[in-house]
Amino acid sequence: MNTVSSYLRVFGFLTLAYIILELTIDSGTQWAIEKYPALWIVLSLVLLVLVAVEICLAALQKILFQTLKADAKERYLEAKRLRKENKYAWLKETYAKLTKSKPIEKESEIILDHNYDGIKELDNSLPPWWVYSFYATILFAFIYMVRFHVVNDYTQDEEYLAEVAAAQKAIEEYKRTAKDLVDFNTVELLTEASDLKAGEGIFGANCVACHMKDGGGGIGPNLTDKYWILGGGIKNVFKTISEGGRDGKGMIAWKQNLKPAQIAQVASYVLSLQGSTPANPKKAEGDLWTDPNAPQEEAPKTSIDSTAIQTPAVDSTSVVSTLKK
Ligand code: HEC
């Protein structure tokens, strides 16, 4: 264990062992090493074995070397020296090719004959790595121009919309798997039968004592009418259930007992009771709720009677004064 390469080998095999462990052990979303701390012991053992093997190999090499005759020893060392010298030859050559710089001894060949207060200038050729990068940018620009300004492949707007659509899809996908991520800002009315059924179950288990089985109300208000004390619509209802009603009224914050996904289900179930007729309804409390986001289709359409239109008296001075402001 006295050469750099032996350390590198140990490190490399250890990494390999770790990767194999991670790949072969099913640990869900966690790292295997996190889930099963015993793997640290396995890895330590692997490390121990690797170090032992390296030490044995080095010892073996030394013993073999000692058994060689004097001239063989020399040849061996010579070969070793050569190997070491040529080790990074390829790298060095490539580097020299890419920079094309003159070694200091040869700078006299490219020195320019002017002299600025003792500062002299070398006429180095442009380094090939730079020149070829420059050509690459020209090629890129050409392809870019043809693709987006001649063939009009797609515009930035289209690219943006496609990316937003893809992101939206990813969000939908994520939400489907992470239903508990909802809060009253993001919750949407659930309409699937399975969700409503689950909501009904939660309502039956927790809410009927005060709101009655049919939502007609008792200690708590009637949930089937269009009047809401704390606001209607899925977002308000979710918030009421999650955060509770006004202090002292008896409606607790259910977020301690129900998961966000369950609150969304029971809120959707409550809203599905809208318009039903409970057996013994409590009288409406609160305000008539209209969804501010609903399409405004029932805006009162007054019949337009042209004869009835009165031209409003325009006060020219007031118009001028508003313009001046
Ligand atoms: C201990 C009795 C009680 C229980 C149990 C109860 N509530 Fe309530 N609930 C009330 C009271 C009282 C109010 C009125 C709160 C207020 O006036 O601030 C209310 C209000 C509400 C409102 C708002 C009504 C409005 O007009 O704004 C909703 C929605 C609601 N409850 C749903 C539920 C759901 C869902 C459950 C079961 C998870 C539940 N409640 C359990 C007593 C209860």
Characterize the structure shown:
The protein has helices at residues 4-24, 32-35, 38-67, 70-85, 89-99, 128-150, 156-177, 193-206, 208-211, 233-243, 260-272, 316-324; strands at residues 111-116, 119-122, 227-228, 287-288. Helix 1 runs antiparallel to helix 3. It is elongated and about 110 Å long. The chain is mainly alpha-helical. Helix content is 55%, strand content 4%. It is built from twelve helices and four strands. Among the domains are: 4-85, no CATH class; 193-288, Cytochrome Bc1 Complex, Chain D, domain 2. The model is unreliable at 318-322 (pLDDT under 50). The strands form two sheets. Strands 1-2 form a two-stranded antiparallel ribbon. A two-stranded antiparallel ribbon has the order 3-4.
Features:
mainly alpha, binds heme C, two-stranded antiparallel ribbon, 325 residues, Cytochrome Bc1 Complex, Chain D, domain 2, 55% helix, two-stranded antiparallel sheet, single chain
What is the CATH architecture annotation of the domain at 193-288?
Orthogonal Bundle
- Note the main sheet: 2 strands, antiparallel
Query: What's the quaternary structure here?
Result: single chain
Shape: elongated
CATH superfamily of the domain at 193-288: Cytochrome c-like domain
Structural class from helices and strands? mainly alpha
Predict the CATH topology of the domain at 193-288.
Cytochrome Bc1 Complex, Chain D, domain 2
Amount of beta strand:
under 5%
Helix content: 40-55%
What is the count of DSSP helices, taking H or I runs of 4+ residues?
Answer: 12
| Order of strands, widest sheet | 1-2
Task: Catalogue the ligands.
Answer: heme C
CATH class value of the domain at 193-288: Mainly Alpha
